[in-house]
Amino acid sequence: MIVRTTPDLSSKDPNWWRQAVIYQVYPRSFSDADGDGLGDVRGVTQRLPHLAALGVDALWLSPFYPSELADGGYDVADHRDVDPRLGSLDDFDEMVAEAHRLGLKVIVDLVPNHTSHQHVWFQEALAAGPGSAARDRYVFRDGRGEHGELPPTDWQSVFGGSAWQRVPDGQWYLHLFAPQQPDLNWAHDDVREDFRTTLRFWADRGVDGFRVDVAHALTKDLDEPLRDLGAPELSREEALPDFPPGTHPFYDRDDVHEIYRDWRTILDSYSPPRMAVAEAWVRGPRRALYARPDELGQAFNFEYLQAGWDARELRQVITGSLEDARLAGASATWVLSNHDVVRHASRLMLPPGTDENAWLLSGGHAPAVDESRGLRRARAAALLMLALPGSSYVYQGEELGLPEVADLPVEVLQDPIWEQTGRVRKGRDGCRVPLPWTTSGPSYGFGAGGAWLPQPPGFASYAVEAQDGTEGSTLELYRTALKLRRKLIEGESLTWLEDTPPGTLAFTRTDGWRCVTNLSDTPVALPPGEVLLTSAALDTDGRLGPDTTAWLA
Fold it and tell me: What is the pTM of this model?
């Protein structure tokens, strides 16, 4: 048990997470304290005052565990340690203590679907051979064909290619992601008990919550014979509707929920209870199951992230999401960007139906993106999101208005998607480029020794130093909005205002304040009320311009 030197500030409100603003830190790209080009835990600690001044409630730390970085840290070699390149457990404890001193909660990423192939269990499994107890912790199978030369099924990896990898003794193991990420067998008692231990390990160190990676993929139908899916594309997450709910061989199975009910007993054994949020790429009522009070409590709302810049579509998604959360006894979640998608300052400017991968392969030139209008939309989208009932998850750098770095040269790409797909999908590196803190220097203040991904010269104008205290900057907009939000947020519902101009979203929150977003190309009149904040200046006649959000008392 860790002896804490600072109070657990989350005890002031055990339900703090229901309407929180949570800031995602991708550690390797946030801040580099030791100058080796890779962000680290001490770098996070040094920059915590930025998060406190921003006004967020918590930081969510993407994986910082020992890893060879085959998948950006999500190939975990030890779920209960810190990668030596990123620091130590002592560094982690100091970070948690400083976060709590500043009034910030700490959420850590948990990666339960798979391990790294360097994990001690997998190395034991390889050494032990076919039929061994060690192999049963993973999903090993004999191949098909006369000599076992064909994969056991037609299942495909999310990153491209077969989801099976052959080992020298002839057997194959399952990896729904990169070959360096073998899937665990969640029917095995050792696996379940080890993750119970992991939950307690981090909760005992003062962690306030967990983000559960690929929460919908833990359990699999491994009864023999394994089921082929009939078409490679049916292995992908977005193909779930092709199966009756809860019956896909390895996605969103009904039996996954017993795992989270078990975890909830552990999370609730702490005072205050630890929160959790599921990364579950499933829709509507199925997603809400993960967010039930006796399971994880929240689930990411990717339908909102995937919605276009369209008033009708956004209203439908918001209404459905709030209803799903209400029926589950959860609070809704909202997110615009994260470490896996094109940053929304660029994405919201792409024409509907744009092939984002083709756009990335073009270096962001086909179609060309209007960066200034993209920033205008991003600012309007931010105020809309922050006005909604529930929790908002903010990805590092969006408070600076950072666009996607779409023109990274292929020789610097790190995402395994690039090689795994035969260099046809560019991957996610463009949203992971290290943050700019200053307007000059070898990495714009990220660290003394450069950055592991190259930053474009234009990052200087987006740097914290360039925006700090600058009236009208995106950073100051976020700071003002988050400060105001704390005063305004009450209840977990909204009422839509009807008879609004075409292309406009408008709603009233429980205590009477209003949010109006103009997604059209035409200025619109605002309803009566005191204007508290706008994402861009009002027109000279007081109307709300295109791609602009206003909050009114």
Answer: 0.94
